[in-house]
Amino acid sequence: MTEEIFRFCDEYGPEKIIHFANPAIELKGILVIDNVAAGPAIGGTRMAPDVSVEECVRLARAMTFKNAAAGLPHGGAKAVIFADPAMPLEKKESVIRGYACAISEFTDYIAGPDMGTDEIAMAWVRDEIGRSVGLPREVGGIPLDEIGATGFGLATAAEVAQEFCDVTIKGARVAIQGFGAVGKHAAQFLIERGAVLVGASDSRGTIANPDGIDVDCLVAHKEGGKPVADYPDGQKLSCDDIIAVPCDIWIPAARPDVLREDNVGQLDCKMVLQGANIPATLEAEVKLHERGILSVPDFIANAGGVICASVEYHGGTETSAFATIEEKLRLNTRAVLMDARDEKLAPRAAAIKLAGERVRRAMSLTRWG
After folding, report:
1. What's the burial of 294, exposed, middle or buried (CB within 10 Å: 0-12/13-18/19+)?
2. Closest Cα partner for 176 from 273, 268, 291?
3. Is the CA virtual torsion 125, 77, 118, 202 positive or negative?
4. Using CA atoms, how far apart are residues 160 and 155, in angstroms rounded to an integer?
5. Active site includes 91?
6. CA neighbours closer than 13 Å in the CB half-sphere of residue 156
7. Closest by alpha carbon to 283, among 212, 291, 78, 324?
8. What residue spans define the domains of the chain?
9. Which of 128, 149, 171, 350 is the most exposed place for a label (fewest CB within 10 A)?
């Protein structure tokens, strides 16, 4: 295990890489605690059959930078569980409760929801070990997926980013890769600001309509258990076709590395608003910058969820969570994009510069930093 940490280690972390398993309940997973200089780490619990230690390490680092950039009193971490999130609910509860017990001794990690888990899963974690965020209202939480905290933050970031590229939110055409908890709320908040949804995808296909898609109807269609490609008002396409849908704002809101050097050239947009964590490879980021497409980095644009989680953890309300998200997203998006413009940097480089400085400052204030 020491060799594994050394393979990924740099000036920030990771501090711990923990593998856990319980064959009796078919539990297998990884917890990466990246950096806790600013405080106990908050990071999501992702459930998918094809996760990896490399993905978990990258996601944990994204959380370190996200929390630091947002000025939260938390470090970064991530947990992944190797499983199909569509398993029967009774089995899923057993797996999540087993996961909670497996991480119970690592008190510098606070679990939150992510792909494949939700506020109910976090309630199971809390019931077992007494610490998690993104909880149901019934147990005093702020259900960040239900209220669309991440999507609200994305729309806020877009309002700032429009000042730095040839996009105006009112009338902007939006395409969303991953019409789930993040994607649907991002669509709703952007449509409230005058944008038009022209494309959306999920794991089973894409629907596209240059004249616009009724977001509320598509959400109801999706929540009824139907794939977006079966929505009747639009052209049915494959999953991968979402990348080439002509639009002004393209939002990746699902898995990592959906934008790569081999496909990023298909994008026909002016802004990429990164709703997913690590949705683009470094090579793809370079290509976007070279093409003049403004790419707002993930740990800046999609920080709404973890900001909400932090507000909940410290006893705040849903109203204060939205106010804090708006304040921090506006300040940080503008700071990063202004620095990128003035220093002639790619936005990701400017974002890493900002977050890295804050992490190093926090590390300098700790005994072992």
Report:
1. buried
2. 273
3. negative
4. 9
5. no
6. 25
7. 291
8. 2-59+76-141, 149-304+331-354
9. 171
| CATH tag, 149-304+331-354 | 3.40.50.720
* Peptide bond just before 14 cis, omega within 30 deg: yes
The residues, ordered by sequence, that sit 6+ positions from 271 with a Cβ below 8 Å of its Cβ are: 158, 161, 162, 165, 167, 248, 249, 250, 293, 294, 295, 296
Residue 295's SS3 state is strand
Residues 6+ apart with CB under 8 A from 96: 81, 117, 121, 124, 125
CA-derived radius of gyration, the chain: 19
Give the span between the Cα atoms of 153 and 310, in whole angstroms: 14
- Selecting among 78, 222, 270, 328, the annotated active-site residue is 78
pLDDT tens digit sequence for 103-129: 999 999 999 999 999 999 999 999 999
pLDDT score at 2: 59
Q: Which of 226, 228, 121, 246 is nearest to 183 (CA)?
A: 228
**CA–CA dist 71, 90 (Å, integer):** 38
Beta strands in the chain (DSSP E): 16-22, 27-35, 41-48, 76-82, 109-113, 173-177, 196-202, 205-208, 235-237, 249-252, 271-273, 294-296
> Quick one: which of 178, 35, 197 has its CA closest to 115?
178
- Quick one: tokens of 297? 């980095």
175 has which bridge partners? Answer: 199, 250
Question: Model confidence over 34-57: pLDDT tens digits?
Answer: 999 999 999 999 999 999 999 999
Report which of 272, 56, 85, 84 is spatially closest to residue 177, judged by C-alpha positions.
272
**Helices and strands, counts by H and E, the chain:** 13, 12
Compute the distance between CA of residue 83 and CA of residue 89 in angstroms, rounded to an integer.
Answer: 13
Domains 2-59+76-141 and 149-304+331-354 share a fold: yes
